[in-house]
Automatic annotation (TrEMBL):
Annotated HD/PDEase domain residues: 60-255
Alphabetic keyword roster: Hydrolase
Gene source species: Litorivicinus lipolyticus
Protein name: DNTP triphosphohydrolase
This protein's encoding gene: dgt
Coiled-coil regions, chain positions: none
Domain of life: Bacteria
Molecular function GO terms recorded: dGTPase activity
Upper taxonomic lineage: Bacteria, Pseudomonadati, Pseudomonadota, Gammaproteobacteria, Oceanospirillales
GO biological process: dGTP catabolic process
The keyword Coiled coil is annotated on this UniProt entry: no
PANTHER family: DEOXYGUANOSINETRIPHOSPHATE TRIPHOSPHOHYDROLASE-LIKE PROTEIN 2 (PTHR11373:SF40), DEOXYNUCLEOSIDE TRIPHOSPHATE TRIPHOSPHOHYDROLASE (PTHR11373)
Length: 434
């Protein structure tokens, strides 16, 4: 892979057509990508979606939107620092600047959670639970096994690519029409479910055509029919996300009372150089956490660049490499969070509520779509609940002439686009009307 191709400004215009855009105006093409994401409806709705801790009256705690903004800031810095290193090695082509890498990583990082359903990872698990249930499997029985597997393994990452390439403002015609560079950098797992070595995947079959065009255009290494090697800048987005949530989840847990400040202090202080300790002595809890966060993220930046230099050749060759922060304090922070934060009683209650609400909503929507599909083949009549959905939610439902797989996907577009409070309100309203 080479940087001149990997940082392509071309945008999708039609199948097989990627149109070149110049940077003659003050606002460069990669800045346009960032702007299109931040002004989108899908991004704005992240403000009412859970990051880790359930939405509360405490405005200090992060939502998906504030987390995404923070990751984009760290990603921009990581990208610029990586760009400076590339320039120092003579690896940055003429006409490209370190800022270009920073802006591409910033845009991809801004969108990295844009496909997450309500209640975050608990919502992903709830959607998978529904499609793996006997009722869900009865609904997907007419589909090919590969598509059933995809629905049963619902991924917010793949849904995010769908949001960027298939939804507003150009529905089924390129979506936001981002540059190829930003799309490639966004896709953390550039393969479909059937090509995944583990459960994680980043591209649905419905978006494979447009993504594979982008990947070919970028010169990404094809590993099999439905699998590419990662774009090198994906590692920077991943590092920025790890840097933010590993440190900030600790901070938010103190704010929510999930852990005590003394626990957080005892965890963070040994990870900070002793020379920095004096600057932290005597600070109030909020001030300590603020300063410690900045010190740790600065340290992670230098460790990221060192790892990039070590693995650079392998990354460009499309070979798998460890996470760029694998040898940093991130692992210790993640382990603490898994043991002390992610299993809190409030978090468990949220997962239970999310599962129940999502199951009921998906049950009703897919049930109506499935009955309509069977009725079209004169094999089934409509139940009362299906008639209600087809009558009262008509404007939100996919067209009957679409393949059943596409209808289920559009139902998921609708449901995964909901905010946490809207989902609960919608589910409650459905239960009252049934």
């Amino acid at each position: 892979m080479n940087w001149e191709s990997l940082l392509s400004r071309h945008r999708w215009c039609a199948p097989g057509e990627w149109r070149a855009r110049d940077d003659s105006s003050v606002r460069k093409q990669f800045h346009r990508d960032y702007d299109r994401i931040i002004f989108s409806d899908a991004f704005r709705r992240l403000g009412s979606k859970t990051q880790v801790h359930p939405l509360s009256n405490n405005d200090q705690v992060r939502t998906r939107l504030s987390h995404s903004l923070e990751v984009s800031c760290v990603g921009r810095t990581f990208g610029m620092v990586a760009g400076e290193w590339l320039a120092s090695q003579g690896e940055l082509p003429a006409g490209l600047h370190p800022d270009d890498l920073g802006t591409v990583v910033q845009a991809a990082a801004l969108a990295h959670d844009i496909g997450n359903p309500p209640f975050g990872h608990a919502g992903e698990d709830a959607i998978r639970f529904f499609f793996r249930s006997p009722r869900g499997r009865a609904r997907t029985q007419p589909l090919a096994q590969v598509l059933r597997d995809e629905l049963e393994s619902f991924e917010g990452n793949a849904q995010g690519l769908r949001v960027l390439t298939q939804m507003d403002p150009h529905r089924d015609a390129g979506g936001m029409r981002l540059s190829a560079a930003s799309l490639g950098t966004f896709v953390k797992y550039p393969w479909t479910r059937d090509a995944a070595a583990s459960g994680k995947y980043g591209v649905n079959h419905s978006e494979w055509a447009i993504f594979s065009e982008a990947a070919e255009h970028l010169g990404m290494v094809r590993q099999s029919a439905n699998r590419f090697a990662r774009h090198p800048l994906v590692y920077l987005v991943e590092a920025a996300d790890d840097a933010c949530y590993s440190v900030i989840d600790i901070e938010d847990a103190v704010e929510m009372g999930v852990i005590e400040f003394d626990q957080a202090r005892s965890l963070l202080l040994p990870l900070i150089e002793r020379a920095e300790h004096a600057a932290l002595d005597g600070l109030a809890p909020h001030q300590f956490l603020y300063r410690a966060r900045g010190i740790l993220i600065d340290r992670l930046e230098s460790q990221m660049v060192a790892a990039l230099a070590r693995h650079y050749d392998a990354m460009l060759a499309g070979q798998p490499v460890p996470d760029l922060l694998a040898d940093s304090p991130v692992g210790e922070l993640k382990a603490f969070a898994r043991a002390n934060i992610y299993q809190s009683e409030v978090k468990q209650l949220t997962q239970s509520n999310a599962r129940e609400a999502l199951f009921n909503v998906l049950d009703l929507l897919t049930g109506a779509l499935h009955e309509r599909y069977l009725a079209g083949r004169q094999r089934h009549g409509y139940s009362a609940s299906a008639r209600w959905v087809l009558t009262h939610l008509k404007r939100s439902l996919p067209a009957a002439e679409l393949p059943l797989y596409s209808q289920y996907q559009q139902a998921l577009d609708y449901v995964s686009g909901m905010t946490d409070p809207y989902l609960l309100s919608f589910a409650k309203g459905l239960q009252e009307r049934r």
